[in-house]
Amino acid sequence: MKRRQRGVTMIGWICLLTPVAICLYAAIRVTPEYLNYYKVVQAMSETATQVKGDEPLSAAGILNPLVRRFEVGYIDKPSPGDIRIAKGEKGWFMEADYEATVPLFGNLHLLMVFKKTVVID
Questions:
Q1: Distance from C-alpha of 93 to C-alpha of 71, rounded to nearest angstrom
Q2: What CA dihedral angle connects 60, 66, 69 and 73, to 10 degrees?
Q3: What are residue 85's phi and psi, to 5 degrees?
Q4: What is the mean pLDDT of the chain?
Q5: How large is the average pLDDT for residues 64-86?
Q6: For residue 35, with 0-12 CB atoms within 10 Å meaning exposed, 13-18 middle and 19 or more buried, which class applies?
Q7: Per residue in 1-44, pLDDT tens?
Q8: What is the DSSP string of 46-80?
Q9: Which of 2, 81, 84, 89 could form a disulfide with 95 if both were Cys (CB 3.0 to 4.6 A apart)?
Q10: How far apart are CA 80 and CA 44, in angstroms?
């Protein structure tokens, strides 16, 4: 046998690149949801900074600036009503706890669970 095998065959390339393509496609589908999550976190943090000096604090006094930031940032999900605003031991806090489902292939979906709590000192 004079000829020796060199490199990867076409079938080898297909077997190597298929998982890479699936992971890349999943990353493309997931990216908008993570960008939305970062916008939610930023809106909550900026709202906490804005209302920190307001006295006395109330749930409505925290929700109104949050609604405005959601509208300006084009944040559709979660809705501002889905953000839990309550008074705890350390003071007021906002909690976003939601899930996002992204279709991948056919009936295969990716489920992402997001949870963030911002304390207003």
A1: 21
A2: -130
A3: -120, 120
A4: 90
A5: 91
A6: exposed
A7: 567 777 778 898 899 999 999 999 999 999 999 999 999 999 99
A8: HHHHHHTT-SS--HHHHHHHHHHHHHHTT--SS-G
A9: 84
A10: 10
Positions of E strands within the chain: 84-88, 91-105, 108-120
Query: Phi/psi at 33 (nearest 5 deg)?
Result: -70, -40
Each domain of the chain, given as residue ranges in start order, spans: 33-120
Pick from 43, 46, 37: which is nearest to 115 by CA?
37
The tokens for 101 are 């489902």
Q: Are 99 and 117 in contact (CB under 8 A)?
A: no
Q: Compute the Cα dihedral for 64, 66, 69, 74 and give only its sign.
A: negative
> What's the number of CA atoms in the CB half-sphere (13 Å) around residue 30?
13
